[in-house]
Amino acid sequence: MTEPRVRPDPAFALLGLYESALPEVYGYLLSRCGNHTLAEELTSETFLGAVSSCRKSAVAPVSTAWLIGVARHKLADHWRRREREERGLRLVHESEPETVDPWDGELDAMTARDVLAALGASHQAALTLRYVDGLGVSDVAMHLDRTLHATEALLVRARIAFRKAYQEREGSDD
Fold this sequence. Notes:
The protein is mainly α. Helix content is 74%, strand content 0%. Helix 1 packs across helix 3 and helix 2 crosses helix 3. The termini are far apart. The relative contact order is 0.08.
């Protein structure tokens, strides 16, 4: 009976190259991104990606130049990912309408806190997330597990209830 042949892991080719290639790959990434933490993360991703690539059937010979090519792709992927995130944030920011609240009077903090505490739970939650925590309407909707339009309507009702209760309280103090 013949013993089955064990094929060595092709990723072992990286072991011999690792110590000499690591500073080259890290230096390449650092010089392009200027951030030590990001360069370390991308270097790690580069070597993990290289191991994965080495295990595929058709791979170029493993060399420092090849690893820098992998690093270049990892850096480009990072930049694309960051641009997508920033574009999404810009779209969210631009889509949130600027609401102008005509109630410009100054609020007494203690009275406002008491009035807020006396409101219903959904009004308290919506007003606290929106005005105390400073979240956008879409974030408030996510936290309250509501649709955007339902949250906007809730905020309108909550502001009306708050304003009415606050003004009644102010009137009773005089």
